[in-house]
Structure formats: C-alpha cells, structure tokens
TrEMBL record:
InterPro entries: Methyltransf_16, SAM-dependent_MTases_sf. Keywords: Methyltransferase, S-adenosyl-L-methionine, Transferase. It comes from Amphibalanus amphitrite (Striped barnacle). Transmembrane segments: none annotated. PANTHER family: HEPATOCELLULAR CARCINOMA-ASSOCIATED ANTIGEN, HISTONE-ARGININE METHYLTRANSFERASE METTL23. The gene is mettl23_0. This is Methyltransferase-like protein 23. The keyword Ribosomal protein does not apply. GO terms for cellular component: cytoplasm; nucleus. Belongs to the methyltransferase superfamily. METTL23 family. It comes from the Eukaryota. GO terms for molecular function: methyltransferase activity.
Length: 232
C-alpha cells in the first residue's frame, strides 16, 4: 500500500462560467469550464484544496485570453486547481510543489490525468534551485494560491519568485492570499526583492461572493488577490 490508499479520497468539481461577465454577448452561449480535483482527506496541506485556490483559478479563467498559449508555473500547487484551469485554457503549464513531497506531485499528475490535460510536474522547494528550474522556458505568469500561509516561509517564496523573474523579467506573479492575521505584512519583503504589488479587487473578476466556481470554499474567509511585477 502507498499509504494514501488508507486515507479518504474524493474528487471535487469546480465549474467556471462566463455567464454574466461584463461585455458578454447576450446571444452567445456562455463558456463553461469544469475542473476535477482529486483530494485526500486528513493528509498533508497540499492534498486538499484551500479557499484561495478557486479565487486564483477564477482570475485565470477571467483572464483566459492572456493565459491561452502562455507559459505558466504554479508554486506550492497542492491540488493544482489554477494550473488545471490554465492548462484547459491552452496555457503551457509547469506545476510545482515541495520536492520532498512526492505524494503531492503524484496527486498533481493524477489531477492532470483526470482533466485530460498535459502539464509538466516538478519538485520545487521554495528558495532552492534545481537543474530543471534552469531549463525552464521564459514564463508569462507565476501563480501562487495560499503560498503565504506560514510567515517564516514568506521570504523563501519570494526568493523563488525572484529567481524566476531573473530569466522572465516581464512575468507577472499572481497570488491569492488568505488574511489570517492583520499583523502579517509582505510589503518590506517586496521592497527588499525589488518587486511591486497591485491588489486586484475580487469584483473585477467575479470572485467577490462566498461561492466561487460553484464552490463555497472561499466562504467568509478574507481573501485577496495581488499581481506582483519587478520594479523597473
Ligand atoms: C496552504 S497549502 C496551499 C495549496 C494549494 N496551492 C491550494 O491553495 O489549495 C500550501 C502549499 O505549499 C506547499 N509548500 C509548503 N512548503 C513548501 C516549500 N518549502 N516549498 C514548496 N512548496 C511548499 C505545500 O506542500 C502546499 O501544497
């Protein structure tokens, strides 16, 4: 047995729809995208979907014209919902999570298979560089859903982002953040790493309610979304 076999597995479904988007033609059928996410209960943080994930995935869906054909890398992907949505929209995706957690990477591969999409799955531990990272193509987007959850790791996440932005200086790092304490602040670290952040109001991309993509995971959590770029 692989250990996971004894844990409780299930598949969560998310549904993204263009219905009701500003500028949508009334006589056109809405675009609907379904993403299936295999989860394992009572296991590590990365084996179930966090409230930030549907919010970031909804941003990707809303920005689908920019994501189609783009090179995208997701950090700390866990169950990889934003990556699945990006891949379904035609992005070329690299899904990453902690290199020391092969069961997470196996779950990402299973998620991609379930959704019949192709993507590269890589171990990427924040703050560390591996030979595979050096071979990545230039990226347009770096994604992170709830990767700033443990304050001592904040700078390690940004160290990885800074490394990726060195070879892709025009890439955008888009992350969704769950506010767990008002005392936490990323600003000094962003300044240290020569980055700037712009908050995108959730209403701009249809993620301002307690339910997003048919899921009530976001609920009443305080979730924010930011786009980070290098300071020129
Ligand atoms: C709170 S979970 C979020 C998972 C997923 N992005 C989501 O929103 O559903 C944090 C994720 O970061 C990953 N992680 C934690 N420490 C890491 C590290 N040092 N390097 C890379 N990934 C890490 C965990 O394995 C987990 O998948």
């Amino acid at each position: 047995m692989d250990g996971l076999a004894t844990a409780s597995r299930y598949v969560r479904t998310f549904e993204f729809s263009s219905a009701g988007e500003a500028g949508a033609a009334v006589d056109e059928a809405p675009l609907v995208l379904r993403a299936l996410v295999p989860e394992v209960l009572n296991r590590s943080y990365g084996l179930y979907t966090w409230p930030c994930a549907p919010v970031l995935a909804q941003y990707v869906f809303h920005e689908r014209r920019r994501f189609a054909g783009a090179h995208v890398l997701e950090l700390g992907a866990g169950t990889a919902l934003p990556s699945i949505v990006a891949a379904k929209l035609g992005a070329r995706v690299t899904v990453t999570d902690c290199a020391a957690a092969p069961q997470l990477l196996a779950n990402c591969r299973r998620a991609l298979e379930l959704n019949a999409v192709r993507a590269t799955v890589l171990g990427l531990s924040w703050g560390l560089v591996s030979p595979e990272l050096l071979q990545l193509p230039p990226l347009q987007f770096i994604l992170g859903s709830d990767v700033f959850y443990d304050e001592p790791l904040f700078e390690e996440v940004l160290r990885s982002v800074a490394f990726l932005l060195e070879t892709s200086p025009h890439a955008e790092f888009v992350f969704s953040y769950q506010e767990r304490s008002s005392e936490r602040c990323l600003e000094p670290l962003l300044v240290k790493w020569r980055m700037q952040a712009r908050q995108v109001p959730l209403a701009e991309f249809g993620a301002d309610g307690p339910a997003v993509a048919g899921s009530d995971l976001p609920g009443n959590h305080s979730i924010q979304l930011y786009v980070v770029t290098l300071k020129q």
